[in-house]
């Protein structure tokens, strides 16, 4: 599968996570403090280039009923702008419960909002990405008749 970059787009920060080269395990990577849409996209795509990313997965914050709300519309607008600046395939991943899972993971691992420790924005991106990777592995198993 190759490396996959997971993205959790927020109003103030963008969390990034990266898979291993086999596309099996997601790890929190970085947080980008929001500047401008153009600046944010350039930073993301620079990281994608440096890390030889083959696919990008963006968390889409649907409402609990599955509808697209104002925050999801912002993410779609951002993603459309990013798509127009790269040839890397970009997919959405439903992220309705990832913030909750990332906060819980942070509590369980003892991570705090201290300098040098990955904040929950990147953990949320890792949860989004890991969910995607696991789904892809299941699809592959089904296709191979396993």
Count of helical segments?
4
Query: How many angstroms separate the termini?
Result: 18 Å
Query: What is the total number of structural domains?
Result: 1
- Which architecture name does CATH use? 2-Layer Sandwich
Tell me, what is the CATH class? Alpha Beta
From N to C, what is the helix and strand string?
A: EEEHEHEHH
* CATH topology annotation: Nucleotidyltransferase, domain 5
Give the secondary structure arrangement, pairings included.
Elements: E1 3-9, E2 13-19, E3 26-33, H1 37-50, E4 53-60, H2 70-83, E5 90-94, H3 98-109, H4 120-143
Parallel strand pairs: 1-4, 4-5
Antiparallel strand pairs: 1-2, 2-3
Helix pairs in contact: 3-4
Distinctive features:
4 helices; Nucleotidyltransferase, domain 5; five-stranded mixed beta sheet; alpha/beta; 24% strand; 146 residues
Structural summary, described in words:
With 146 residues, this protein is of the alpha/beta class. It has one domain: YqgF/RNase H-like domain (Nucleotidyltransferase, domain 5). Helix content is 44%, strand content 24%. A 5-stranded mixed β-sheet has the order 3-2-1-4-5, sandwiched between helices. β4 (53-60), α2 and β5 (90-94) form a beta-alpha-beta unit. α3 packs across α4 (120-143). The longest helix is centred in the last third of the chain and has 24 residues, at 120-143. The chain is globular, with a radius of gyration of 15 Å. It starts with a strand and ends with a helix. The model has no long low-confidence stretch (mean pLDDT 87).
């Amino acid at each position: 599968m190759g490396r996959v970059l997971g993205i959790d787009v927020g109003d103030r920060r963008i969390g990034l996570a990266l898979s291993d080269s086999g596309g099996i395990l997601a790890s929190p990577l970085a947080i980008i403090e929001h500047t401008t849409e153009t600046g944010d996209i350039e930073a993301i795509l620079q990281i994608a280039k440096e890390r030889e990313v083959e696919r990008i997965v963006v968390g889409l914050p649907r409402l609990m009923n599955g509808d697209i709300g104002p925050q999801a519309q912002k993410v779609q607008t951002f993603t459309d702008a990013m798509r127009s600046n790269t040839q890397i395939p970009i997919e959405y991943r439903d992220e309705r419960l990832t913030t909750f899972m990332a906060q819980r993971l942070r509590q369980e691992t003892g991570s705090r909002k201290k300098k040098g420790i990955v904040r929950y924005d990147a953990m949320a991106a890792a949860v989004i990405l890991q969910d995607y990777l696991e789904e892809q592995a299941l699809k592959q198993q089904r296709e191979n008749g396993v």
